[in-house]
Amino acid sequence: MRKHFLLLLLITVTFTANAQTARGIRIGYIDMEYILQNVPDFTEAKNQLEQKAQKWKQEIEVKKNEINKLKESLKTERVLLTKELIEEREEEILFQETELTAFQEKRFGPNGDLIVQKAVMVKPIQDQVFTAVQDIAEQKKYDFVLDKSSDLTVLFAAKRFDISDAVIRSLTRSSKRSQLSKKELKEEEIKEYQEDLQDQNSDLAARQKALEDKRTAREKAAADKKAERERLMEERKLAAQEKREAALAKRQQLIDEKNGKKPEASKPEDAKKIGTEPVSEDKQKTSTQESTKVETLEDKQAARKEAVDAKAKELEERKKAIADKKAKILADREAAKKAKEDKKETENKTEENK
């Protein structure tokens, strides 16, 4: 539930930042675990609590050893004891184990002495941290300060927005003030002012560097875009010039062919002259229209010639087919006539023989 609330808070911060026009939203963050590890009061209290926990663990080990001894003794003497004594020993062992479990739960359970005393130890330091965070946020004009070590998942956080060291420095100063005289306190205040001024200058330098980097990136992107645009314009000019030169050369070739002249090989000087000679837009349109008309006329003449040739070829093939058919009919007639004569001659010879 807390994670969802923090996520909703971040979304709200984002929309608020987009809506702000006069000043951008400033967000800082702290790492509570890092702060607690570097605060002297917390370190001392943590060491004391660890000593207590170690003592409790030793007591638990002593009780475990006593129970193990009772178990070993019962195991060794079981054959010599009566049923009533065995049950009495087993009840004693069970009672000792129950007491050990209760002791462990009391010291190290979810609501045990270790957790309670740790919360009691951390609470005043957390209050000091919250007070220091509020003071720093007011001084540096932060709108929000988040805890990086909380349930909120932070995928990335820039180091320049981390105020954990500033919080540790504030807590350390507060701890020192209670032990200083008036003169030392005044000297410490001057030293703290100089440190704060140095931090502000470093923050200002970091922001200026970030702004300078952004401006440099924008200028570089604009220069690259301009260079690309100029390159494209130059390529278009060259392409248009080459197209004009090709159109003029083709037009000249068509005019020469129409006038019955053989196309002469263009000299390099002429080509160079044509390429550098400025051509007006009206002249370009006229030359394009004329070349289009010549191309259309030539296409029509070529199509008409192809049609005439195809028709002549078809007529020649038809004549050839008729001649072949006529020759075949004559050949068939001659063959039939010859066969008839041969038959008649054979009949005459037969009659004569008779």
UniProtKB/TrEMBL annotation:
<feature type="coiled-coil region">
    <location>
        <begin position="39"/>
        <end position="106"/>
    </location>
</feature>
<dbReference type="InterPro" id="IPR024930">
    <property type="entry name" value="Skp_dom_sf"/>
</dbReference>
<protein>
    <submittedName>
        <fullName>Skp family chaperone for outer membrane proteins</fullName>
    </submittedName>
</protein>
<keyword id="KW-0732">Signal</keyword>
<feature type="signal peptide">
    <location>
        <begin position="1"/>
        <end position="19"/>
    </location>
</feature>
<dbReference type="Pfam" id="PF03938">
    <property type="entry name" value="OmpH"/>
</dbReference>
<comment type="similarity">
    <text>Belongs to the Skp family.</text>
</comment>
<feature type="compositionally biased region" description="Basic and acidic residues">
    <location>
        <begin position="292"/>
        <end position="354"/>
    </location>
</feature>
<dbReference type="InterPro" id="IPR005632">
    <property type="entry name" value="Chaperone_Skp"/>
</dbReference>
<keyword id="KW-0175">Coiled coil</keyword>
<feature type="region of interest" description="Disordered">
    <location>
        <begin position="212"/>
        <end position="354"/>
    </location>
</feature>
<feature type="compositionally biased region" description="Basic and acidic residues">
    <location>
        <begin position="212"/>
        <end position="285"/>
    </location>
</feature>
